[in-house]
Amino acid sequence: MKRLSDIGTIKDILSRYGFNFSKGLGQNFLINPSVCPRMAELSGAGEGVGVIEIGPGIGVLTQELCELADKVVAVEIDKRLIPVLDETLGDYDNIKVINEDVLKLDLNKLIEDEFKGMKVVVCANLPYYITSPVIMKLLEDKLNIEAITVMVQKEAAQRICAEVGSRESGAVTVSVNFYSKPEMLFQVSAGSFMPAPKVDSAVMRLNVYEKPLFELEDEKKFFTVVKAAFAQRRKTVLNSISSSLGLEKSVVNDVLLDSGVDPRSRAEKLSMNDFAEISRRIKL
């Protein structure tokens, strides 16, 4: 098995295939040999487990997942990397590479087709520019998965893993916590990648609930309210929601009071239950 985190090996492979990094796809390949084994182990990959990997690159993390899991399905959008992965993953018979855009893929069907009888987890080194869309798709599609372990920009991980109701929390914090329990696993320096990004990364794990945290008649309205509340962070929740949703302040004020929320509060001070109560009572 080639050591794919070795700079010389990476350059040799990419040179032979005439590959150049795409800034548009946020491609940064790991060269720190300790990161992927640790990430794969903490992802929950193991016997009886199937793994969905998003953006395998040249297969550094993929190899580690193949060593642990019964089956790995890697979704790679860049068709230039498919022949590269055919080479780097050629020693494994438990890998399937799909050349697709994960944001357009029917992941429920993929799980049904590829992982019958297995527990399923997701593990990925996500490009910074699609971190939130991918994570929210994985959660909103209500997939039959146990956990999502991803490497993302450190700041994004800190925001997602912040406690709801704390100063660091944001709309994405509330949204992710609705579906899962996030935890920070470890940090990864910018120098662990080639080419090196301008910021550090972090690996986090989202432990997915069997059912969302709250039973709501209209989940879409819940997330609309959350986004509106955080849309203007420096304003009170009253002003932010009324302004963002085009509602009369008096109407929003009554909804907040009925929900037990001080209209003068800012969004980061609200709890999950506060947002759930507001979304139940507000009429959009």
Question: What do these coordinates show?
Answer:
The structure is a single chain. 39% of the residues lie in helices and 18% in strands. The protein is an alpha/beta fold and 284 residues long. The strands form two sheets. It has a seven-stranded mixed β-sheet, sandwiched between helices. Helix 4 (82-88) links the parallel strand 3 and strand 4 (95-98). The protein is elongated and about 65 Å long. The model has no long low-confidence stretch (mean pLDDT 92).
Overall strand count: 9
Low-confidence stretches: none
Which strand order do you get reading across the main beta sheet? Answer: 4-3-2-5-6-9-7
Average of per-residue pLDDT values: 92
* Element-by-element helix/strand order: HEHEHEHEHEHEHHEEEHHHH
Q: Helix content range of the residues, please?
A: 25-40%
Largest sheet: 7 strands, mixed
Number of H/I helices: 12
Provide a short characterization of the protein structure.
The protein is built from twelve helices and nine strands. By secondary structure, the protein is α/β, with parallel strands linked by helices.
Q: Topology of this protein?
A:
Blueprint: H1 7-16, E1 29-30, H2 35-42, E2 49-54, H3 60-68, E3 71-75, H4 82-88, E4 95-98, H5 107-114, E5 119-125, H6 131-140, E6 147-153, H7 154-161, H8 171-179, E7 180-188, E8 193-194, E9 201-208, H9 219-230, H10 237-245, H11 249-258, H12 272-281
Parallel strand pairs: 2-3, 2-5, 3-4, 5-6
Antiparallel strand pairs: 1-8, 6-9, 7-9
Helix pairs in contact: 2-3, 6-8, 8-9, 9-10, 9-12, 10-11
